[in-house]
């Protein structure tokens, strides 16, 4: 392993410890208050640099609206703002990134893969990208599946979460990020 990979893996472990503390102690934790004392941390796949991939960006100048179903049976409207093309396990894949209207924040990337409902949360996981500048066609970004996380609705029925649309269902196994809570 290189020093960069060692640094990345250590930073990932540190972030996971911080998230575990938040879930165990913070009043805004999705873990119900009565269960926090027995909470001993989330279950993660080991850090794996193979799941940090370089993706080519295609920006959608006129973002198409996408209606996403939620865990509570509602729909929420997002805009498909970018498409990421990348290779994983020797195969080409695409994922789409979304934002809600009038939101200039992070890029929301909900996913399902062949671990969904087996080793990971039954309704899929999320990733978020926070580019340091406006993305343009042909830009390259890192998609780090080690950062894939279960939405709050995986921990409590009080949350209503968007479900990954079918266009973001990967036909491969992504053994990275959070496992089933």
TrEMBL record:
Residues 1-47 are annotated as: Disordered. Residues 13-39 have a biased composition (Basic and acidic residues). This is DUF1684 domain-containing protein. It comes from Halorientalis persicus. The lineage of its organism: Archaea, Methanobacteriati, Methanobacteriota, Stenosarchaea group, Halobacteria.
